[in-house]
Write a structure and sequence with these properties.
Layout: E1 5-10, H1 14-25, E2 29-35, H2 39-47, H3 56-61, E3 67-70, H4 77-86, E4 90-93, H5 101-114, E5 118-120, H6 128-139, E6 145-153, H7 172-187, E7 193-201, E8 211-218, E9 222-229, E10 239-243, E11 246-250, E12 257-262, E13 273-275, E14 278-280, E15 291-296, H8 305-314, H9 324-343, E16 347-348
Parallel strand pairs: 1-2, 1-3, 3-4, 4-5, 6-9
Antiparallel strand pairs: 6-10, 7-8, 7-16, 8-9, 10-11, 11-12, 12-15, 13-14
Amino acid sequence: MTEKKRCAVIGYGGMGKWHTRYLLESDVAILSGIYDINPEKSKEAEANGIHAYASYEEVLEDSSIDFVTIATPNELHKPLAIQAMKAGKHVISEKPVTLSSEDLQEIFDASEKYGRLFTTHQNRRYDVDYLMMKAVYASGELGDVFGVESRIQGSRGIPGDWRGKKEHGGGMILDWGVHLIDQMLGIINDRLIKKVYCVCDHITNAEVDDGFKLDLMFEGDLTARIEVGTSHFISLPRFYMTGTNGSAIISDWRDKTKIVCCKNWEEKDVKPVVTAAGLTKTMAPRNENTITTKEMERPDSDVHNFYRNFVRAMSGEEEQDVTHVQLMRSMKIMEAAFESDRLGRPVDFEDFHDGRK
């Protein structure tokens, strides 16, 4: 049995409450309390039976606390993380960790200097739709995959809080993009990225992007499209993957995966079909005898495994799942996306990875 570790959550907003709920249910961690700069948030926590520390300094002076989880606006992650590691605490930070790769490297340097673990809460690695697409790609049954699409679309714009402000690290690339980039790198884990092309939307917010279309152009002529939209009343499929031998689709994150593969390319006597005001043989539907169709069942997934891995990594029982190299790669991609949008063209991307090839 892994010895339970004690944690304090910094910030008691939406994600801070998410963390307190999961820590209260955890089999590897104990919630010591929270700290929030807003006194009303502290009162709310105490009303919910959660201890509220009077200051961040009080949190760091509590020798019983093994690690902190930082769930504050993005620009505060770096100073809070470094201060905590200096005080001897391990650190989990909400994403994105920082607003630049330079700041992220400073955090990594502090982690090494003070001998404390640092990681980011990449909880979307436990999304079942992502795990299914990862399994489809790894199976090879679609043949040589040349296209992967990942989309999150809604119609409510950017939340009306700090996420709409540039100074706080707002915008959809830093909010949802960091998750979808991490997922895409988990799916396509055997190729390097050659170019990055991004176009940002400013439909409801002139200060930060409220949506974007990001293309990652991998070696081997594989292009991955990552798209986030906040002004969409009809959503496109959550995932779509296509290769030389078939295609796979997940229409909604609650769905199973539909996989259609070709078992016979040579279909004789293909008859043209009428489409709108013309004929086409190219787009004629396939004879059922030439394809196979199946559904992939949704696998089990437990987001509690994020904390289980981190606590076991603290004890030296496991390696950290969310590594510094992975975090830096995602940060560099986001920086390249912003630069591509600024220039209005694709940018070269000098890729690297953590030994997976």
